[in-house]
Amino acid sequence: MEENKKENRYIKLGITLFLVLLAVVISYFILRDISSIAKFINIILKSLSSIFIGFTLAYIFSPLYNMIRNFIIKIFKNTKFKTKKILTFAKVISTIICILLVLIIVFGLLLLMIPDLVKSINDLIKNLPSYSANLSIVLNYFHLEEYEKQFKEWYNLFQTNIIQFILSFSQNYGKSLLKGVYSSVSSFIYIIVDFFVGIIAMIYLLNSKEKLLSQYRKIVFALLSKKNAISFMRECKYVHKIFGSFISGKLLDSLIIGIMCYIGLLILKTPYALIVSVIIGITNVIPFFGPFIGAIPSIILIALAEPIQGVYFAIFILILQQFDGNILGPLILGDRTGVASFYVLVSILLFGTLWGFVGMLLAVPLWAIMQHIINYFCKKELLKKNLPIDSIDYSYEKVDEMCKENIQ
Question: pTM of the prediction?
Answer without folding.
Answer: 0.68
